[in-house]
Amino acid sequence: MTDSTQHQFQIHLPGLLKVLAENLYSTKKVAIRELLQNAHDSCIRRQVESEGETFRPRVDIWLDAERRTLTISDNGSGLTREEIADYLSTIGRSYTRELGDKLSFLSPDEAASLIGQFGLGFLSAFLLASEVVLITRSAKGEGESLRWHSTGDVNYDVSPAVRAEAGTTVELRIKPAASFILNPDVLTETIQQYADFLPFPIHVDGSPLPVNLMTPPWESASPAPGGASPDSNIADYIARAFKMNAPLCVISLHDQEIDVGHDTLVVPLKGFLFVPTSSVASVREYGDLNVYIRRMFICEHHPHLLPRWARFVRGVIDCPYLQPTASREDIQQDDMFVSVQQALETQLINSLRHIAENDPATWKKIVRGHSDVIIGWAVQDNEFFDRVADLVAFRTTRGLLSLPEYLKLTGGSIYYVTRELGSLQEQVLGEGRGVPVVDASWFAVTPFLQKYADLRGETRLVQMDGDANQLLRPVADTPFAALLTYYRARNVRARVANFKPEDIPALIMYPKDAEFIRETRQALDRDELPGPIAGLVSDFMARKTAASEEDLNGTLYLNAACPLITKLAARPANDRAVSQALGLIYQIARLFAGRMMAPDDVTKAFREAGKAIEELTAK
Amino acid sequence: MSLTDWLLKSMFEARANHDAERTRLFDLIFDASNYRYTHPERTLAMYREARALAETLAEAWLVMYIEHWTLQTLLYSTGDCRTALELAAKATVEVRKPQYDQLPQRICLHEDLIGAYLYSDPAGYTAELSEAFDYMEREISPDYECRMCLQSQQISFAICLDRIDEGRDLAQKFLAMSQKSVHHTASALAQLCEIAYRRQDFKNLSEWAVAGEGAARKNDASRLIAEFLAWQAAAARRNGDEKQAASFYQKAAVQAGTLGAILDAAYYDALCDYHESAGEHELALRLRERELAGLIGKGKTYAECQCRLKQLRLLSRLGRPVADELANAREAASRLRNPAPILEQIDTLGQGGLK
Fold first, then answer.
1. Tens digits of per-residue pLDDT, A265-283?
2. Which of chain B's termini has less CB crowding within 10 Å, N or C?
3. Where are the beta strands (DSSP E) in chain B?
4. Chain B partners of A535 at a C-beta cutoff of 8 Å?
């Protein structure tokens, strides 16, 4: 048996820094966030540890482009020699996390306001700097001042220093590759991106006014629940952070109780949701949130916190239950994440219900501004469907109508076409019977209508394209026998029906898929498909349809309600003008149908029609 | 340039030219595929929208490209062979036109038509499908990716016809061919699992399933992950490891719960074997009922008949009345082109045999 020996892991700091720079963080700018967060936590710590002392936290940042230095100074708790060794120089050990653990029972509010966790943040300074000098004086005890210095390799120096006040100053000697941060505008923008809402003032180059707002707009504003007009602070924030103006409504977030099965849980929520003016399905859908944790910016456009049906909503959330990932550029999708999702969904549903009940005008704007997105997602989600089913507006031949508005006009049936183009004949027939036709060419409309009809048993769906003869009423042929004889003699299948509008003398209807059937038969006849594949297509055709060639030529429906047709039917059968008129009517009907015609057929139809007109006008 | 490269190039051009309609078209095409297994109905709806837009923009190739992916979604996500068959026939007729001669998806649409027959009535169209496979083998050069889809179809065909040794040889060849594509590797391993199960070879089943799960996870193939977990559950129980088996079963069920796509017969075979090997026929029966619900009305007649036979066997073992199910099974068999072999099995079961 061999003796086992224990060994310690060795850390190759330059390698670790390279990993941090290239893999953990997406941008070097996060170093500013990490250092500001350390300053923040240090100030919180001083507040907690120095009971009774009057303390005004402050952070100063100085730029020196000539020396290529950036200095961040806070008046927080500072560090002792032991703390430098135990926390600042021990990778993965976080004083803040340990302080948070200690405080979690005694001072939960303060514990909750601490941000740091991983003990990795300080290392990120080397993303920007080739050399870091830290001068610190602890607020504890006699307050020894110390200088810590590192160039990012395995060694660091600690030596005595001079510092009058408690706190910490970090000086970064900026690498050439990170020179951008020496630009004051870039620095200010970075501070505002990450630390705009940290509760302490951050001053750049001694400016009297802090560059950060300190108070988030959602904490300074007080919009009513589901209020239509946002507070101006929030409107400004939306314009700045989301580049959007005039949202349809803003919903303030507040703590939300959720059911967790055996118990309830109150999820602390701050921030707001808003509904932009419009969306475009799949191209400009939203459903995203900017995420803060204890006022520190984590990430923007997080796509999974809001329910998936809420693609017409955006917003900002600040929730201490969310846990950042090690890079603090994303959040962990753990159990608490699921609880926050649940809380947000509950609150959003309640707020939308409140708007729908108390502010119908705003609700109407929301549903109409986002109808395509709402229709698409409502098909997927029954509860959401129930909320919006009667409110969504559809494009119809009479403009935008909700389904209850539409059904009032049709008495219980929904007539729709699935093709935007080539459905004019069907739409005319619909309107002729006094019913508007829904344009269901948008992908989710048909499933939505089907779901609506399924859930409301009395609603009937009528697809007009390919099946418009449902709007034709059969009538007795006898009074029109001469007209039918005329067409029969010319191999045109003709019938008489009653339909509206009365101004239309005749229509031609074709079987569903008539074009495909004819084309496939021709392709098979001409051996245009490879053998074994042709066999399968041929089998499909044999099973699919028994449509004859005569069927494919269509059926001409003469309109018994049309005064012209009744007049022609009353004329003598051998009247030449009647024949010419019937020929003309047939060609017009073919052209109006716009189907089953090759270019040659169209030319021929016009030629025939022209000939008939010429003969009629010659008399 | 591959078709994907061409699509990406076209998309970037559309963006650079501020061509909002084409940008929207590409966004729809690419976004739709994200929902293929979780929300296949949404994928289909987005393809419908994309197709209409492509037609309006006179993008004929893109129309056919979208048709192919619609067919893939119908065949492998919603399992709607009836709709797929009609669409595949129409697309096949359309792509014969000269403007599609250079379209790579032309051959894929032929493959989709074959797939629609393969998954609706393979035994009824044995001769036609064999001829079609021969034709496709001649058409597709060995280095073309479609060759792998074809290989996979041929394996499914062999398994359906109970030509298990032929299926095994083809699947092993498929596995060798697919080494550069984790997607196809996972498919090959799924078929090897099915073959191992048919041969009651639970040792190999377990090995293929473990390897398959790894490949499927690399490819984020959520439906196959569920299938491999189910196979591991069945194999573990057969190998006497109850704890491990229960754990795999639970994982498989959770994974399946995330899917909007229907699950293959292999998934149900695995979980039913898990129950049946421990005498839990009632639980197996419930699974078969769920499988059947996903098949009815979709035109997968052969699979429906097979499922009904398995259901009848379970009912017989449980000593339950089978009259209604016998009638339903006969009705399903009557929709096959050659119903005699299935009807014979149904009759035997009706007389109390083949338990």
1. 899 999 999 999 988 765 5
2. N
3. none
4. 128, 131-132
